[in-house]
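Phosphate transport system permease protein, Geobacillus kaustophilus GBlys. Tokens?
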Amino acid sequence: MHTKRRNRWLEEYIGRTFAVICGWLIVLITVTMIIFLAVKGIQSFTDSGLSLSDMLLSMQWDPNGTPPKYGALIFIVGSMLVSLGALLISAPIALALAIFMNFIAPKWFVSLLKPVLELLVGIPSVVYGWLGVTILVPLLREWFGGSGFSLLAGIIVLSMMILPTITSIAADALANVPMTYMEASYGLGSTRWQAISRVIVPAAKAGIATGVVLGLARAFGEALAVQMVIGNTIKLPSGLDSPTATLTSVLTMDMANTINGTPWNNALWTLALILLLISFFFIAVIRLVGPRKER
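Tokens:
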């Protein structure tokens, strides 16, 4: 009896110790990465002599020029345009799909739709990019002229990528609204659509907003698929059919062409730091939006 109790205590002690070590390890890795990225990112200003305004407000990116230029404004604007464009397309569709799954579709169809969404989430980004290059870019070239590599191609590919993420989170948020809300709305004489649009969706708006922000964060950080279809031209787009570049695309293209410690390499680290700060912003928004549901 004494041996059995001691073994149980040892199992609980070992399990608790292992869980605590894992928790602190992930915190340590994250903090180390942030510190490393911050140290490398500020070298453009401490070692290369760039100013913050030159980096953030200039549209001249010419690392091989004389003197070299490292303005990141085109990439920041390109990332914002392609991400917000993807969000404008995918968010309404995702909300409609979430409503359809929870209140309209028969159960057998929901059981079919959920695995499809999970499959879309799991498809690697390179596959989305390859499909975009093979199918979407030639279609855009035929419809609008030009090369087909454009801001619109990036928006469409990204909207496909973030659609299942937003849909899944919005569907869960709608499913967590108590059915008594719907029943009370019916009791007051509302139709199903009035109950959904005026009671259920507002009650789940915190969860829906969290899904939208997570989708936007994924769109902003996506690199490979966007790089494959957006054209990677260092200029501001004049329209949806114009090519441009993003923060992630210039990072993936230039990272292999630089030597550690050079101004060009330091500038790329600064672009990575900007991406990290933008990710922090999205996380802060999620933290502000999410807990309201629990209060």
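The chain has a mean pLDDT of 87.
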